[in-house]
Amino acid sequence: MPYAPHTFQNLIGHAAAYGFIFQSSDIYDGLAAVYDYGQNGAQLKKNIRDAWWKSMTQLNDNIVGIDAAIFMHPTTWKASGHVDSFSDPMIDNKDSNKRYRVDHLIEAHAEKLQAEGKADLAASILAEMEKLLAADDLNGIKTLIVDNKMVCGTSGTANWTDVRQFNLMFSTELGSVAEEASTIYLRPETAQGIFVNFLNVQKSGRLKIPFGIAQTGKAFRNEIVARQFIFRMREFEQMEMQFFVRPGTQKEWYQHWKAQRRQWHIDVMGFPEDRLKFHDHVKLAHYADAAVDIEFEFPFGFKELEGIHSRTDYDLGRHQEFSKKKQQYFDTEINQNYVPFVVETSVGLDRLVLATLSHAYAEESWTKEDGSPDSRVVLRLPANLAPIKLAVLPLTKKDGLPELARQLMDSCKTAFHCFYEEKDTIGKRYRRMDALGTPFCVTIDHQTKEDGTVTIRYRDTMTQQRMALTDVKAAVLAAITV
Ligand code: ATP
């Protein structure tokens, strides 16, 4: 189903109003492209992280998980290539002082041309851009911008600086004495923490190839233009898995992980197939022999959600060269020593949260039986991911109903997240739970005292049914187990 207009803007407002995502440092008017997760967002994000972690480290007996530090020895980033080439070409407008990533500026111009019916010109500009970026021809890119009369959205002028490379890594100083302090970086990806620990993990775990190492954690990139809410942030979280294989078998493993990861988004995240798309890379990084993005249809179009890359022996080979320590594995099956090849899966946790919220968010309106209009905003989150699984609602604050409700809470809260509320009408309380994505509400009423039954109300259908109070826990558990 296509997104309704304004879904994205409304979703951003909804995420703040219901405690999912706030602008960081809100009281100081925020910090660009940095966000905080509130009480419900943090739980949703944790549930997604846990689902990924389980699917990697619990369901695969040849994948283990680690938690490496954010700070790493500075040579790590020389070996990985980030010091020399983790940069985006950018350009400044001298009148507005606004900075653009050149590919974004050119793509926006091409989109405008397309809207004006000049599709051929747009395509040729994009093709030229690809060629120039691949050749690192910064002067050529400036000429392309100037010749096509691209202007700054703020100043409206074409008064541009030269195009420069902008390194995306944040640096800081390690050590308290200025003279002795050395420059270190906040990691721009989690993967290097896995590569440098390859032998530690393999040896201490007596692991045999093929095997994988998984990790989740913060990464930092000084993105030139950070936009589209939590899609592109300066501080974000990645979930990466490096799978170490025998050279020559990487193509099979690449196909394996490509298929596995797509299926995971369907089975565990509950995304429909038509919101997912593969985008095979035609132009490969020099170290990769295959690469694909899994794209998700966000409210602003299909965009990268996850990358799957066959990275050859580049990373371990480079660390071997820079550390002068052998990064080899002895394969007893073929009696050979080699530097393993790596197939990696790398997904952004925040982008997954955004994809989940985008897909779940719905504004619904209908006519009631008496002819009056009604409406609600609902998050149709998969039950396994919802921050709150069950709301327990006593119909009134008296007659012993709160006590019965508390007993149900106590019996369920060890197994899953419950929420208790006795304020407001039942209808209002249901609506609030719909907006938070809570799949089940249980109302304790006077009949509960007589026959031990409760009303269970289902978020998606809004239907209600009587059920024995003692059956509630099992019913919720059955629905949240994938
Ligand atoms: P993009 O082309 O969108 O900048 P990328 O190709 O640089 O992304 P990778 O380096 O492959 O991204 O990182 C793996 C994953 O990490 C991405 O698929 C994305 O989900 C996530 N990611 C990367 N950069 C950001 C960011 N600035 N904010 C949020 N998530 C990010």
Give a structural overview:
There is one protein chain. By secondary structure, the protein is of the alpha+beta class. It has 3 domains: 7-72 and 183-357, 2-Layer Sandwich (BirA Bifunctional Protein, domain 2), CATH 3.30.930; 87-167, Herpes Virus-1 (2-Layer Sandwich); 388-480, Rossmann fold (3-Layer(aba) Sandwich). It contains 16 helices and 23 strands. The strands form 7 sheets. The chain has a 7-stranded mixed beta sheet with strand order 3-9-10-16-13-12-11, with helices on both faces. A 5-stranded mixed beta sheet has the order 20-19-21-22-23, with helices on both faces. The radius of gyration is 26 Å and the shape is globular. It binds adenosine-5'-triphosphate.
Quickly give the CATH architecture of the largest domain: 2-Layer Sandwich
Uncertain runs: none
Q: So, the CATH homologous superfamily of the largest domain?
A: Bira Bifunctional Protein, Domain 2
- Looking across the biggest beta sheet, what order are the strands in? 3-9-10-16-13-12-11
Q: How do the helices and strands line up, and which of them pair or pack?
A:
Layout: H1 7-17, E1 21-23, E2 35-37, H2 39-58, E3 63-65, H3 75-79, H4 82-85, E4 87-92, E5 99-101, H5 102-115, H6 119-134, H7 138-147, E6 164-167, E7 171-174, E8 182-185, H8 191-195, H9 198-204, E9 211-220, E10 235-245, H10 250-267, E11 276-280, E12 290-298, E13 301-310, H11 314-323, E14 329-331, E15 336-338, E16 341-348, H12 349-360, E17 361-367, E18 373-379, E19 390-394, H13 401-412, E20 418-420, H14 426-436, E21 440-444, H15 446-451, E22 453-458, E23 464-468, H16 472-480
Parallel strand pairs: 3-9, 19-20, 19-21
Antiparallel strand pairs: 1-2, 4-5, 4-6, 7-8, 9-10, 10-16, 11-12, 12-13, 13-16, 14-15, 17-18, 21-22, 22-23
Helix pairs in contact: 2-12, 5-6, 6-7
Residues 189, 221, 223, 232-233, 236, 238, 304-307, 346-348, 350-351 line the site of adenosine-5'-triphosphate.
